[in-house]
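Q: Start with the shorter request: fold the first protein.
A: Done. Sequence, then structure:
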Amino acid sequence: MDRPHFASTEAVVVAIREVAREFGLEMRTTDDIGADQVSRRTSAGAFSITDPDGSLPHEAFVELSGFPAVTVQVFPDDDAKITVDGIEFPDVPRDSVPAFLRSVHTGMAHVKGTVLPPGWWLMVPLPGDETYKEIVPRGTLSPWLSRSARR
């Protein structure tokens, strides 16, 4: 499925703000700008604020209120890490972030149990037949994760 392309970190933050408004969630954002500030940048030299091409990399950390607890860390490298109720989804393309958040807040995201190997997986389906899944560590089924469990 075609999704809007977000050319910058700020564009993703604006899209997240729209999702938050849609679901009545409060949002808190922290921005880090400059190669010496972002957490995942190796292309710039020590003590430099810009990349070799002169651009300022921008990283944002977004916390959304409500249940489940959701945070989004948007990296300057076109991807994001989304944490849902303590379960981390690394390397989510930033173009997929709004659809991911909508899936979580509309109840499409769910926990799936497997017999072999035994365990639980947090499944986040997106439109267009794309699904993100991450293992739920043993003993960490929160009330929200337990409510969304399916066998």
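Q: Next, the second protein, separately.
A: Sequence, then structure:
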Amino acid sequence: MTAIAARLPAARLLVAALWAGALWVLGYVAAPAVFSIASGTNAGDIVGSFLHRLAWISFACAALMLVLVRFSPDLAAGRKRFLNLLVLAMLACALVMYVGLQPAMAAMREAAGPEGIRASPLWTKFAIMHGVSQLFHLIESILAAVLLVKSR
């Protein structure tokens, strides 16, 4: 095995840790902290900015993981297939949130006007979409834990 190939397991673990850490810190530390100290509209804007960055971190980590898995001679074909499916499932979660849910929720917040989304007739639909978004984040977070354990 070449020197580069010998470092691929560590590289996979590093990328998985970065991805998992970003998901966990934003979803379970930063976002709740922001909502605990900032008003609803401002907090939503701040967390929305975080989510935009998280999406791009997810896309980059997914691409890196797919390349690392593809060129890892230490992985059997079945394990490569499992890791690829895991990464693609996480990527699908990120895409659903970034391309589907976040833009729709942002449009609802904007349509709600200066009184805010909670005072709007769109509140129920927004709350449902927010719950679905949280579910996708939870699923991606759990898959990230599996990826972290299985990347070595």
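Q: Describe the second briefly.
A: The first helix runs from residue 3 to 37. The mean pLDDT is 95.
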